[in-house]
Structure formats: C-alpha cells, structure tokens
Amino acid sequence: MIICVGIGPGDPRYLTELASTHLRSADLVAGFETVVNLVRPILSNDTRIVSMGYKDQVEKLKVVSQAHHAGERCVVAFMGDPHFSGFQFLERVEAACGHQVETIPGISSVQILASRAKVCFDETTCLTFHRRGDLEPFKRHLLNAIKDGRNAIVLPRPWDFMPKDIVDFLLKYGIAGDHPVEVWENLTIDEATWYGKLADCTLDFSDMSIMLIRTKTPMASQIIEEPVK
User: Fold this and answer.
1) Domains in the chain and their CATH numbers?
2) Smallest Cα–Cα separation from 33: which of 62, 54, 6?
3) Rounded to a whole number, what is the distance in angstroms from the first to the last CA of the chain?
4) Are 160 and 225 in contact (CB under 8 A)?
5) CB contact at 8 A, 219 and 125
6) Which of these, 156, 166, 167, lies nearest to 208 by C-alpha position?
C-alpha cells in the first residue's frame, strides 16, 4: 500500500485526522526532509523514515517503491496539499511505483492566506510557480487573471521567480503599480507579513513566501445592490 498525504502548511493543528491516522500506522514514511521533520513527532518509533532532497528524490523514491511492492504500508508526506505545488512530485512517486496512488488532501497555504486576507476563491485565481520547467504559460495566466480584474494568490518559485521578479514581470506587461499587494511568510508557523503597492514590492523574501495581488475593481462580494423597487 502507498498513500500520499498532505500535512498542511506547517502548524500540526492543521494536519487532518485522516492524514494523521495514515502517518501513525505506516511502516515507512517518506518525503522531503523539511516535511518529514514536521510529522516526525507523531510517528511510531518503529516507523522507517526515508527523507530526501531535490537532488536525490528519484533514488530515494526507488527505496519507497521497493518497500511498497514488498507489502509495507508506505506514506509519502507532502507540504500543504499534494495537488497544489506537489503535483510534479506526485507524478514522480507514481512513476517510481509504476501505477497511480491514493492521495489524501491537506490544508494548503493558499487556503490559509485566503482566510487571513479575507478573499473569496470565486473571485481569485490561484497559481503556483513552485514547479520545474517552463513558467511562461503560467506567467501569461497570471497576467490575464489580473487584467480580468481578479485577485491572484501566487506561490513564487525559489529563487528565480520570487515576489520582486513577479512584480517586474507584471509591470513590464502593463499592470498598474498601485495594485494592493501582500506577501506572507511561514504561514501558521512564524508568520511575517508585508503590505504595500505592487511597484513597491522590491524586497527579498524567503522560499516560504506566498503573495496576494488584489484587484482594484470591487468584486461581487463587496457590492451591495440597491433593492428593486
């Protein structure tokens, strides 16, 4: 058995009961070192841990696959939700195992930010640049979303498309510099927040940052219609 679980944004209180149950009963728990360290306190002393980094993930996933095919209960832990920012890693897990795997959703930092900033998902485009490969299609998607008058919640890519790079891109293609912007770091763990205008967002932020670009156009949730007479 192999299951991929989202562990949430970092604070263990956001770990779902179902994900916790699978982690506690696993023979083997695998994931990137930072993620595994967050769930280590709840694991059994008998649980075998396979931690990995970006460079050795393919080799380490072979170990997980061997254990899985030997009948061990294997859980691969993902930060946040496996289907947001973790999807390429999920594909590597399935490639190593040779088949599709079950996933257990988790609380994403996107959901936490929407709660903190009081924005509606119906009126917001969520984009992750935390991926390998060509970013151009996703950059265009972001540009079009803002031109369409939508909020945008954005996960930057360390370290070549961080908040200040996103700002440079948007300003270059005609987005007004007075859009309200928030950058949040280490959501639910040791939070820090920057507020300002798009053109002023020139600071260096950590790889645990997430960005909100607000629309300047009132959204449906902000409009109070006059009653029909």
Assistant:
1) 2-104 (3.40.1010.10), 109-217 (3.30.950.10)
2) 54
3) 63
4) no
5) no
6) 156
70 vs 99: CA distance, rounded Å: 15
List per-residue pLDDT tens for the chain, 229 residues long: 899 999 999 999 999 999 999 999 999 999 999 999 999 999 999 999 999 999 999 999 999 999 999 999 999 999 999 999 899 999 999 999 999 999 999 999 999 999 999 999 999 999 999 999 999 999 999 999 999 999 999 999 999 999 999 999 999 999 999 999 999 999 999 999 999 999 999 999 999 999 999 998 655 555 444 444 4
The single residue listed with the structure tokens 């299951």 is 3
- The one-letter code for the residue type at 206 is S
What are the distances in angstroms from CA 100 to CA 1, 3, 27, 142? Answer: 11, 10, 20, 30
pTM of the predicted model as reported, rounded to 2 decimal places: 0.90
For 103, phi then psi, to 5°, come to -125, 145
